[in-house]
Specification:
The structure holds two protein chains of two kinds. Chain A is an alpha/beta fold. Chain A is 36% helix and 19% strand. In chain A, the strands form two sheets. An eight-stranded mixed β-sheet of chain A has the order 2-1-3-4-8-7-10-9, with helices on both faces. A two-stranded antiparallel ribbon of chain A has the order 5-6. Chain A starts with 21 loop residues before the first helix and ends in a 7-residue tail after the last helix. By secondary structure, chain B is α/β, with parallel strands linked by helices. Chain B has two domains: 180 residues, Thiamin diphosphate (ThDP)-binding fold, Pyr/PP domains (Rossmann fold); 109 residues, Rossmann fold, CATH 3.40.50.920. Chain B has 13 helices and 15 strands. Classes of the chains: A alpha/beta, B alpha/beta. Bound molecules: iron/sulfur cluster. Iron/sulfur cluster binds next to helix 7 of chain A.
Chain lengths: 269, 382
C-alpha cells in the first residue's frame, strides 16, 4: 500500500505549517508500519496536545487524541487492557517531557510495550513559540526573548535512566534511518522511545534565525553523527544519532498475563 | 440457593459491587481513606482474569481507565479529595468523549490535604463542577455498606447506558464502616452491558452520531471500525471541528442526555414521609444520624420524615420539589457548609422554609446536632 492508503484523506488538508517536520515523521512512521506488515485494525495511535499530537486524526488506525502530556497514561490503559494491540504514541517535546514528564519516566520504568515517538522541535509550536524543556541553553523563544537560562534535558540519559529498554535518536533529514529505527522501535517488546529532531520553521526557526525548513534540516545533517562514527570522533560536539539502548527486559503486560496464569486463571486477551 | 451474606467494610463492598457489575480494568493510586479499594483489587482482579495497575498518580489513573474503556471493558478508579482534584481534567475528557467510566471518591475533610482520616461531604459541588466547561455528570452516594454495593453496580449501569463518567461520592464513614451485606446471586440484579454498534464492517460508522434516543452505540478499539476520539469539540466522525453549530449541538447533547433525565436517573429512599410536617433531606453517612433522630422523634409523636438522596447529580430537583410540597419546614442534613442545601432551596417553591443542620469540623454529625436545629425551627428554643 502507498502512504496515502493509511491516511484519512477526508480530513485533509492537515493543519501543519509549510515546511513543518511533523508531516515527514508521519509519512515515515507509516512506512515503518507498512514494512512490518501490521494490520490497521491492530494499531492504536495515542497522542497528547500540540502540533505533533494532531497526527492521529489523519491516520486510518484507531486513534485517540487526548490531554496535554497524558498520552502515555491513556496508552498504558489501552495496552494493558488489550495487549494484542500495537500502541504507538507520537508526542511533542514539551508534551512528553514537561507536563508529561512524570508519565514518561514511569512508562519507561514499567517497560510496557509502547512505542513513543518524540518529535523534538525545541519549542511549543501550537501555543506560539514558548521555550520547552528541549530548548537549548541560550536559544530564543517567546518566553525567553533574550535566550533561555533553562537547561535542556539530556534526552537519552533521561530515557535510559528511567529504564526505557529501547532508546534511539534520528532526524527529519535522515528519512531511511528514521523508517528503520521506528520499525525497530515498534517491533521491540517493551517501552521504546525514539527522539526525532524535527523542525519548526515558523517559531523556533524564525526566533533563532535558522533560515528555511530546508536550512534547518541541513543543520540536522551537519550537526549530528552516527553513534561511534568517525565523524563523531572527529567532532565530539555533534549530537549522536542511532540506537543507544536495545535491551530485553520483562515486559509489563506479559508479566501481568503470567501472573494471571500463576493464579490459575485466564483472560479474554 | 443460600444467600451470600457477609460482614464487610464499605470499601470492600465497593469492590464487590464493581466485580458484580463486570469490572475488568482498574487503575489507582493510594490515598486515605480509599486505599483499601486499590489494595483489594490488586489481589482480586488478577484472580478473575481482570487487570489491575498502580499508576504514578491520580491523573494517570483516570487517563488509563479511559484508554482501557475504549478497548471495550468496564473500568473504575478510586481516590479521595486531593486525588479527585487531580482527576478533574481527565474526567472532563471522559465527559467530552463519552467514555463509560466509574470514579469512586471516598470523601475526606478538605480543602487542601484537610483532614485525611475524618468524615466529610465537602466534595459534592466538586463532583458536579470540578472539571471546566459546561457539562453534566452523574453522582451517586450511599449511607450503608449494603447500599454502597448496590450503588456501585448502578454506577456501572448508568455509565454504560449514558456513556458518561459516574462519580461514586461516598464518605469516610461509609468507606470504613463494617456491616452485614447480602451479595446478590449473579443475575439477581440487572447488569447493563455496553451498547455496541450494529454497523457492519466496510460501512461508514459515525462514532459520534447521536441516535434518536440520545444514545451512541460504540465500537471498541481493536474492532473493525477505526475512528478518532478527541477531547476537542468534534463532529460525528470524532474529528475536531470549530463549527459553531457542531459545538452548540455537542454541548447540548452532553448536558441534555443527563439533565433531561434527572428524575428518571434519581435514586432515593423515604422514611416516615407520608404525614411528615418536617421533612429532613440527607445523604451518605449523615442520613444515618438523620434517620436515627427521625425514629426517635416518631416515638414521641413528632411528625418528621426523611428523604434520603442516593443520586445527587444530576440533581433530582423535580422529585425534591414534589416531596417538599406542603411541609411546614425542610431540614437539610449534611457534612459541609450547605452544598445540597442550596440545591434544595433552588428546587422548592418556598425556599424560606428550608434550613440546614450541618457539621464540617471532621466530627460525624450526631442525632443531637440535628435535633438542636429541629427544635429551633419548631420554635422550641436551643
Ligand atoms: S508551529 Fe511549528 S511545529 Fe507547529 S505546525 Fe507550524 S512549523 Fe510545525
Amino acid at each position: 500500500m502507498a502512504v496515502k492508503d493509511y491516511l484519512r484523506q477526508r480530513f485533509f488538508p492537515q493543519i501543519w505549517c509549510p515546511g513543518c517536520g511533523h508531516g515527514i515523521v508521519m509519512a515515515n512512521m507509516i512506512r515503518a508500519i507498512e514494512r512490518l506488515r501490521l494490520k490497521k485494525d491492530e494499531i492504536v495511535v495515542v497522542s497528547g496536545i500540540g502540533c505533533s499530537s494532531r497526527m492521529p486524526g489523519y491516520l486510518d488506525f484507531h486513534t485517540l487524541h487526548t490531554l496535554h502530556g497524558r498520552a502515555l497514561a491513556f496508552a498504558t490503559g489501552a495496552k494493558m487492557s488489550h495487549p494484542k494491540l500495537t500502541v504507538i504514541v507520537p508526542m511533542g517535546d514539551g508534551d512528553a517531557l514537561a507536563i508529561g514528564g512524570n508519565h514518561f519516566i514511569h512508562a519507561a520504568r514499567r517497560n510496557m510495550d509502547l512505542t513513543a515517538i518524540i518529535m523534538n522541535n525545541s519549542i511549543y509550536g501550537m501555543t506560539g513559540g514558548q521555550s520547552s524543556p528541549m530548548t537549548p541553553f541560550g536559544k530564543k523563544a517567546t518566553t525567553a526573548t533574550s535566550g533561555t537560562i533553562d537547561h535542556a534535558f539530556d534526552f537519552v540519559g533521561l530515557a535510559r535512566g528511567a529504564g526505557a529498554s529501547f532508546v534511539a535518536r534520528t532526524t527529519t533529514y535522515h528519512a531511511k534511518e528514521m523508517i528503520k529505527i521506528i520499525a525497530k522501535a515498534i517491533k521491540h517488546k517493551g517501552f521504546a522511545v525514539v527522539e526525532v529532531m524535527s523542525q519548526c520553521p515558523t517559531y523556533y526557526g524564525r526566533k533563532n534565525k535558522l533560515g528555511s525548513a530546508v536550512d534547518m534540516m541541513k543543520r540536522f545533517k551537519e550537526g549530528t553523527a552516527l553513534i561511534g562514527s568517525k565523524k563523531k570522533a572527529k567532532h565530539p560536539d555533534l549530537i549522536e544519532r542511532g540506537i543507544f539502548v536495545d535491551e530485553e527486559r520483562p515486559e509489563y503486560s506479559t508479566s501481568y498475563l503470567e501472573l494471571i496464569e500463576r493464579l490459575g486463571n485466564s483472560t479474554t486477551y | 440457593m443460600r444467600a451470600d451474606v457477609r460482614f464487610m467494610q464499605g470499601n470492600e463492598a465497593i469492590v464487590e459491587g464493581a466485580l458484580y457489575a463486570g469490572l475488568h480494568f482498574y487503575a489507582g493510586y493510594p490515598i486515605t481513606p480509599s486505599t483499601e479499594i486499590t489494595e483489594i483489587l490488586s489481589e482480586r482482579l488478577p484472580g478473575t482474569g481482570g487487570k489491575f495497575i498502580q499508576m504514578e498518580d491520580e491523573i494517570a489513573s483516570m487517563c488509563a481507565i479511559i484508554g482501557a474503556s475504549l478497548t471495550g471493558f468496564k473500568v473504575m478508579t478510586a481516590t479521595s479529595g486531593p486525588g479527585f482534584s487531580l482527576m478533574q481534567e481527565a474526567i472532563g475528557y471522559a465527559v467530552m468523549t463519552e467514555v463509560p467510566s466509574v470514579v469512586v471518591n471516598v470523601q475526606r475533610g478538605g480543602p487542601g490535604t484537610g483532614l485525611p482520616t475524618s468524615v466529610a461531604q465537602g466534595d459534592v459541588m466538586q463532583a458536579r463542577w470540578g472539571t471546566h466547561g459546561d457539562h453534566s455528570i452523574i453522582g451517586l452516594t450511599a449511607s450503608s455498606v449494603q447500599d454502597a454495593f448496590l450503588m456501585t453496580v448502578e454506577a456501572f449501569n448508568l455509565a454504560e447506558t449514558f456513556r458518561t463518567p459516574v462519580i461514586l461520592l461516598f464518605d469516610e464513614l461509609v468507606g470504613h464502616m463494617r456491616e452485614k451485606v447480602v451479595i446478590p446471586q449473579p443475575g439477581e440484579i440487572e447488569v447493563v452491558e455496553r451498547l455496541r454498534t450494529s454497523v457492519p464492517q466496510g460501512t461508514n460508522y459515525h462514532p459520534y452520531l447521536v441516535r434518536e434516543d440520545g444514545r451512541l452505540p460504540i465500537s471498541d478499539f481493536g474492532g473493525v471500525h477505526r475512528y478518532n476520539v478527541t477531547g476537542l469539540v468534534h463532529d460525528m466522525w470524532g474529528f475536531p471541528s470549530s463549527d459553531p453549530k457542531v459545538a452548540y449541538d455537542l454541548i447540548h447533547h452532553l448536558v441534555d442526555k443527563l439533565e433531561h433525565r434527572a428524575d428518571t436517573i434519581a435514586h432515593y429512599k423515604e422514611y416516615f414521609t407520608e404525614d411528615a410536617e418536617v421533612l429532613l433531606i440527607s445523604y451518605g453517612s449523615s442520613a444515618r444520624s438523620a434517620l436515627h433522630m427521625v425514629e426517635d422523634r416518631r416515638k414521641r409523636g413528632v411528625k418528621v420524615g426523611l428523604l434520603e438522596l442516593q443520586s445527587l447529580w444530576p440533581f433530582p430537583g423535580e422529585t425534591v420539589r414534589k416531596k417538599c410540597e406542603g411541609r411546614s419546614h425542610v431540614l437539610v442534613v449534611e457534612m459541609n457548609m450547605g452544598q445540597i442545601y442550596q440545591e434544595v432551596k433552588k428546587a422548592v417553591s418556598k425556599p424560606e422554609k428550608v434550613f440546614l443542620a450541618n457539621r464540617f469540623d471532621g466530627v460525624f454529625i450526631s442525632p443531637a446536632d440535628i435535633l438542636r436545629l429541629l427544635n429551633v425551627i419548631q420554635g422550641k428554643g436551643v
